[in-house]
Amino acid sequence: MQIDKLRGKTLDQLFESILSLQDVEECYRFFDDLATMNEVQSLAQRLEVARMLEEGHTYQKIEADTGASTATISRVKRALNYGNDMYTEVLDRVQSYKMD
């Protein structure tokens, strides 16, 4: 994993902090303090791009609907194809929560 290069105490602290959040409202408040609006929007955009790619949408449709660049779409597609399968796993979990 690429992120292994960053592995350490401070990144563990970040991830443990995220895992400690109780609900969506706490996520909004934490990320409002933690990141810029552009950073949060970029993360949300990438997840939406992944969802749309998994549904089989074209780059043109994804670009039009999300405003993501083709470079971002390609990066997300590369992660879907060659990454750790976490986009798929997380999107599946969120979908199953919505169905419950």
Overview of this protein structure:
This protein is mainly alpha-helical and 100 residues long. 76% of the residues lie in helices and 0% in strands. It has 6 helices and no strands. The protein has helices at residues 9-20, 24-34, 37-54, 59-66, 70-82, 86-99. Helix 3 crosses helix 5 (70-82). It is globular and about 40 Å long. The N and C termini lie far apart (32 Å). 8% of the residues are buried. The mean pLDDT is 96.
List keywords for this structure.
single chain; 100 residues; mainly alpha; globular
Kindly report the oligomeric state of this protein. single chain
Instruction: Summarize the helix and strand pattern as letters.
Output: HHHHHH
Number of strands: 0
Please report the number of helical segments: 6
How would the blueprint of this fold be written?
Elements: H1 9-20, H2 24-34, H3 37-54, H4 59-66, H5 70-82, H6 86-99
In short, what is this structure?
The protein is an all-alpha fold.
